Every structure is written in C-alpha cells, then in structure tokens.
C-alpha cells in the first residue's frame, strides 16, 4: 500500500501514468475512490496522483484539530516525497477545493493550473452561500452506522435521477465506505472547512489559470458559490456549469467532466 510519511502522519496516495503531474484532492470524508473515472482516463495522458486526506480512508486519522494549512502542507510534503518539483495541475472537489485554494495561497509556485469543482470559498468566509439548514444538518450528522451514512450521502451528494437510474450506486458506495471514518476524524475535517481566513480576497492574487466547474443542482454547495469564485478571480477564471448535475458530478457525468478538464489543461 503506497504510504508517504509526511507532516507527522502516514498519508495514503496513488500514483500512475507518466508525464506532467496531475493531482486530485477529494472532499469531506472522501478518498481516492472519488476519482476512479478520472484516474482511469487521465493516466494515459498525465502522471496522476490522488490521495486520502488526513482523517479519511487509508491515511492516518489523528485526534485533535485539523486545519486547511495542515491539509495544504500534507500535499506539499507529498509532492516533495514523490520528488515532484515542477508545477502541477491541481483539481480539488468540495472540501478539496478549499484545500486547493489554501495550497495555492501557501505554495503558489507549485501550481500550473487549478480546477475547483463543486466548491467555493471556505465556510468561514463571509462570501460563502451556505446550503440549506436541512442539508447542513445532514452533513454535520450523517448517521451512526455505515448504512445510515451512505443513505445520507446518496441523498445530498447525487442527483435523484442519477440514483434512480443507477441502483447499483448504493452497493458501490457501501464498498467505498467499508472502512468507517471515525467520528472524531469526520468532525475534524468538517470543522476545518469553516476556516475564517479571507479566501475571497486571496482569489484575485492567483496567477495560475483557473477552471470552476459546478453542477446546477448541487444542494451541498449551491451554484452561487461557483459564481462567487469567478467574481473573486477577476477575469482569471472560466466557469463551466453542468446541467442536471448535483454535487458528485465527476461520477455522475465522468465523460463530460473529463473532457472539460482535458481541454482546460491542454489550452
């Protein structure tokens, strides 16, 4: 099992393919499995790297407070561990998008192009457009058993039409979540999303080209968050809105998602 000893923890990662480095960061409770369709596609074109953030999957789940600065340093140290010195193509989804913004703020020289998918500024930035109270409650308390958590995530992360037409997704999700994330680690990740630093103000300083990609029916991060990112980027961002797509658009519409990213990287 590929493990990097970085920033005081064991961090699980997957690396495959050859060429320019392309890094995928998952969101809250997510793992490398989130990017299954992307890793299979992009490994033929890039050196693809994905990771389980601290607190999730096969990475260490230390007690205590997590922060976006810590997540960003984890990634920085992983790139050093892999001896990657050239700027990377960086893709962050949901909480991973916050991590990506923290990373490019702290290590701007390490990013070639940036993709922010189904994300926005941090939950502690006043420019955020929050989800509904009902969705927030489900995020904060998704359930106790793995079955309860999977049912909650299916409800809020996926478009209902996709779930109805893909009944196998529950079985697949149960397999992904078979290693139940400890409550302390989920809460530490969740709380880290409320980083009070000025993410919106940071956007204007980003020099790397940015693609913002979002589902028009995302209830976890309402679409206005994508528009806010574009506004803050002040002409340095391109927005792509995927119609009839929810939060996990990279799995719902992988071919469209991959095509848009590939075009952006090659531009």
Structure, explained:
The protein is an alpha/beta fold. The chain has a single domain, classed as Rossmann fold. 41% of the residues lie in helices and 18% in strands. The protein is built from twelve helices and eight strands. It has helices at residues 36-42, 68-81, 95-106, 133-140, 146-157, 160-165, 169-176, 183-192, 199-203, 224-233, 249-252, 254-266; strands spanning 3-6, 9-16, 21-25, 47-51, 88-93, 111-117, 210-215, 237-242. An eight-stranded mixed beta sheet has the order 1-2-4-3-5-6-7-8, with helices on both faces. Helix 1 links the parallel strand 3 and strand 4 (47-51). The radius of gyration is 17 Å and the shape is globular.
Quick tags:
267 residues; alpha/beta; Rossmann fold; eight-stranded mixed sheet; 12 helices; 18% strand
Strand line-up of the largest beta sheet: 1-2-4-3-5-6-7-8
Q: What's the structural domain tally?
A: 1
Evaluate the radius of gyration: 17 Å
> What is the structural class?
alpha/beta
Q: Given the C-alpha coordinates, what overall shape results? A: globular
CATH names the topology as Rossmann fold
Can you summarize the main beta sheet?
8 strands, mixed
C-alpha termini separation = 35 Å
SSE layout and pairing:
Blueprint: E1 3-6, E2 9-16, E3 21-25, H1 36-42, E4 47-51, H2 68-81, E5 88-93, H3 95-106, E6 111-117, H4 133-140, H5 146-157, H6 160-165, H7 169-176, H8 183-192, H9 199-203, E7 210-215, H10 224-233, E8 237-242, H11 249-252, H12 254-266
Parallel strand pairs: 3-4, 3-5, 5-6, 6-7, 7-8
Antiparallel strand pairs: 1-2, 2-4
């Amino acid at each position: 099992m590929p493990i990097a000893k970085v920033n005081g923890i064991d961090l699980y990662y997957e690396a495959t393919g050859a060429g320019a480095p392309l890094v995928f960061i998952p969101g809250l409770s997510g793992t490398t499995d989130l990017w299954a369709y992307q890793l299979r596609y992009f490994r033929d074109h890039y050196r693809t790297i994905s990771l389980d953030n601290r607190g999730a999957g096969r990475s260490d789940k230390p007690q205590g407070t997590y922060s976006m600065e810590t997540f960003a340093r984890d990634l920085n140290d992983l790139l050093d561990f892999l001896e990657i010195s050239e700027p990377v193509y960086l893709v962050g989804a949901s909480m991973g998008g916050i991590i990506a913004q923290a990373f490019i703020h702290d290590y701007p020289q390490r990013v070639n192009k940036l993709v922010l998918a189904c994300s926005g500024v941090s939950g502690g930035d006043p420019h955020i457009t929050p989800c509904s109270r009902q969705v927030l409650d489900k995020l904060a308390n998704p359930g106790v058993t793995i079955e309860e958590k999977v049912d909650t995530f299916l409800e809020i992360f996926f478009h209902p039409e996709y779930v109805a037409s893909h009944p196998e997704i529950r079985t697949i999700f149960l397999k992904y979540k078979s290693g139940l994330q400890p409550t302390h680690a989920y809460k530490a990740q969740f709380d880290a999303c409320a980083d009070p630093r000025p993410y919106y103000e940071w956007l204007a300083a980003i020099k790397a080209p940015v693609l913002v990609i979002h589902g028009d029916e995302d209830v976890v991060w309402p679409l206005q968050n994508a528009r806010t990112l574009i506004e803050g980027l002040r002409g340095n961002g391109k927005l792509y809105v995927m119609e009839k797509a929810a939060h996990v658009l990279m799995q719902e519409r992988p071919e469209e998602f991959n095509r848009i990213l590939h075009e952006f990287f090659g531009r």
